[in-house]
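Private note to self, pasted from the team thread so I don't lose it. Backbone tokens:
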């Protein structure tokens, strides 16, 4: 389940999501492995709080690669 945050943390005015991969290997004793690589995905337009006039501006509200790769402002890593 997800909840939309209308005041998310931004990086240079862009909304993003950060994924860190963790393996819980044991409970007692607790053993956790953190993968050295993660991923951050960014929107391609500056974020503005949602209102009826900008609900459909997907490049601002969503961080999905499949959506943002179609924006002219998209920069491939």
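Design output:
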């Amino acid at each position: 389940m997800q909840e939309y945050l209308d005041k998310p943390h931004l990086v240079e005015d862009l909304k993003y999501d950060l994924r860190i991969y963790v393996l819980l290997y044991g409970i007692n004793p607790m053993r956790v492995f953190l993968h050295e690589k993660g991923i951050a995905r960014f929107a391609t337009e500056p974020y503005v709080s949602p209102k009826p006039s900008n609900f459909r501006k997907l490049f601002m509200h969503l961080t999905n690669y499949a959506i943002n790769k179609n924006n002219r402002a998209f920069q491939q890593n």
